[in-house]
Write a structure and sequence with these properties.
The protein folds into two domains: 9-70; 73-123, no CATH class. It is elongated and about 55 Å long. A hairpin with a 5-residue loop joins strand 2 (96-103) and strand 3 (109-115). The chain starts with 9 loop residues before the first helix and ends with a strand. The chain contains five helices and four strands. By secondary structure, the chain is of the alpha+beta class. Strands 1-2-3-4 form a four-stranded antiparallel sheet. It has helices at 10-23, 27-44, 47-56, 62-69, 72-84; strands spanning 89-93, 96-103, 109-115, 118-121.
Length: 123
């Protein structure tokens, strides 16, 4: 593989160092990982969706993101974003750990299982 020199913003390098420590990989591998994800997102997101992702920006620290994800406010906000796209959310069923609960944007809840990566209602 050829090595190419590029200039990268020092703030991005600092974020990559933090993320690389958490992911237990070299900084260059972290930046390559982000580049691959970006390439995938660029191919699947519409212009409006890409604009929204760019508006959200990125957290200065992966630990900040992880801590925020554990708050009820963040979970509610995330659920709202998922619902705004017409998608359900899934969680374990507290009454039966072998089942999954599917929560639809309309508020309906079904229990079931994933079979071949598809949700199948029922017990």
């Amino acid at each position: 593989m050829a090595t190419v020199r590029i200039h990268i913003d020092s703030g991005l390098v600092k974020q990559a160092k933090s993320a690389a420590l958490v992911a237990d990989r070299p900084i260059t591998a972290q930046i390559e990982h982000w580049a691959k994800l970006g390439r995938i997102l660029d191919s699947v997101l519409t212009g409006a969706s890409m604009f929204r992702v760019k508006q959200l920006g990125c957290s200065p620290s992966p630990c900040d993101s992880l801590a925020a994800s554990q708050t009820q406010a963040c979970q509610d906000k995330t659920r709202g974003v998922i619902f705004s796209h017409g998608m359900p959310t899934y969680s374990s069923d507290p009454d039966n750990p072998k089942l999954i609960l599917e929560r639809s944007p309309d508020g309906s809840i079904r229990s079931g299982r994933f079979v071949n990566r598809k949700f199948v209602p029922g017990s």
